[in-house]
Amino acid sequence: MALVRFSNIGLRYSTGAEVLHDINFELEAGSFHFLTGPSGAGKTSLMKLLYVGQKPTRGTISMLGRELATVPRKALPELRRQIGVVFQDFRLLNHLSAFDNVALPLRVGGLSEKDIKKNVTELLGWVGLGEKMASRPPTLSGGEQQRIAIARAIINRPKLLLADEPTGNIDESIGIKLLTLFEELNKHGTTVVIATHNETLVKRFPHAQMHLENGMLDVRPKKQMKAA
């Protein structure tokens, strides 16, 4: 079953040239894709379309069983709550603790404080930050901040998780740990798309690739692991 379907999508900003041309692909529920391509290829624009932060200039997008062009504006927040996003710049709230940053989506959704405490505590423990729950982002390392951003993105158990360069500002060993966390989430049913320039990680984790170049998309299947 296709969780996401892009059909003949084109995108231009204002009156400029198209930055995405005739984009066609489907993301099956429970799939894992890397989004690759050189700088300026259109990866950020495609990610904006995926997290419903931008409308296409032409074509149709089906997301979570609904055609976006027919979704009323008042229904978009509920749709977006089923999509977790890890931004490259983290977008954490520096005046809030790690716990409160991760708890924010649950509070917006109206969950009880008892359930919030249980869920956030368990998840921060799972990402290795159980002892940093009271810490504020400026006191934490880049890798720790990234894990808070990931925890916040997945606390609602999204059907679709999007991560924009999640390993861009951290060392390789932490990057490998983060990719392993994404894989664990994927095993529990979440569809994952990771935009990255990191060829080492792409080769180490042989998932399917969506490769963008000059605004055009080439979908490459999952690589087969070589026998030991």
What does this structure look like?
The protein has seven helices and ten strands. It has 228 residues and is an alpha/beta fold. The strands form two sheets. It has a six-stranded mixed sheet, with helices on both faces. The protein is globular and about 45 Å long. The mean pLDDT is 90.
Task: Please summarize what this structure is.
This protein is of the alpha/beta class and 228 residues long. The chain contains 7 helices and 10 strands.
What brief labels describe this structure?
four-stranded antiparallel sheet; 10 strands; 7 helices; 228 residues; 32% helix; single chain; alpha/beta; six-stranded mixed sheet
Number of contiguous helices: 7
What fraction of residues sit in β-strands? 25-35%
Radius of gyration: 18 Å
Structural class: alpha/beta
Shape category: globular
Low-confidence stretches: none
Order of helices and strands: EEEHEEHEHHHEHEHEE
Fraction of helical residues: 25-40%
What's the main sheet like? 6 strands, mixed
Query: Would you report the number of β strands?
Result: 10
Strand order of the largest sheet: 6-7-8-3-9-10
Distance between the termini: 33 Å
